[in-house]
């Protein structure tokens, strides 16, 4: 793809919508190719645990943003009014997105379908390229050395 086309994709698909698209794609793959479904004993409790953990991590990220009174809108990171580095943000620079990934991992376990699970790395790659990197540029421009120090100290995902 051309660079200008790639730039047009940045910050265009809200992460929640991308989670829904990815989850639907996983479901459709599982239904289209049922032969690839694997026996996975205990998959329901494991799927629920992953999904619950994902929801808790994502909600903790939202709560930290709310406490700091900064925007949770992923399409306008330049509107951030505070650099949030406490709470769950001590462990991940993107706990909301990590939570979404854990939710999708739970969905993959519930589906027990190997090809559907292959969409998980595609979700991470899309998020890194078209959501997180543009957010990081905006935060670096807005918060300068404070963000740079935070980015050196805390990993992008976990």
From TrEMBL:
One of the entry's Gene Ontology molecular-function terms is: methyltransferase activity
Q: Which residues cross the membrane?
A: 12-33, 45-65, 97-127
Q: How does it sit in the membrane?
A: Multi-pass membrane protein
Keyword annotations from UniProtKB, A to Z:
Membrane, Methyltransferase, Transferase, Transmembrane, Transmembrane helix
User: Keyword Magnesium: yes or no?
Assistant: no
Subcellular location per UniProt equals:
Endomembrane system
What does UniProt give as GO cellular component?
endomembrane system
Q: What is its main location?
A: membrane
- Top-rank taxon: Bacteria
Record carries keyword Oxidoreductase: no
Q: What is this protein called?
A: Isoprenylcysteine carboxylmethyltransferase family protein
Q: Which InterPro entries match?
A: Phopholipid_MeTrfase
Which example biological process does GO assign this protein? methylation
């Amino acid at each position: 793809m051309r660079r200008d086309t790639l730039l047009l994709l940045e910050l265009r698909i809200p992460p929640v919508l991308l989670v829904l698209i990815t989850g639907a794609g996983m479901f459709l793959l599982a239904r289209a190719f049922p032969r690839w479904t694997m026996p996975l004993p205990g998959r329901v409790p494991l799927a629920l645990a992953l999904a619950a953990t994902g929801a808790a991590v994502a909600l903790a990220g939202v709560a930290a943003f709310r406490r700091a009174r900064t925007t949770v809108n992923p399409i306008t990171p330049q509107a951030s009014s505070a650099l949030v580095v406490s709470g769950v943000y001590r462990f991940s620079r993107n706990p909301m997105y990590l939570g979404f990934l854990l939710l999708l991992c739970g969905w993959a376990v519930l589906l027990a379908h190997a090809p559907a699970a292959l969409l998980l790395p595609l979700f991470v790659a899309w998020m890194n390229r078209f959501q997180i990197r543009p957010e990081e540029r905006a935060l670096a421009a807005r918060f300068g050395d404070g963000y740079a120090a935070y980015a050196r100290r805390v990993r992008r995902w976990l």
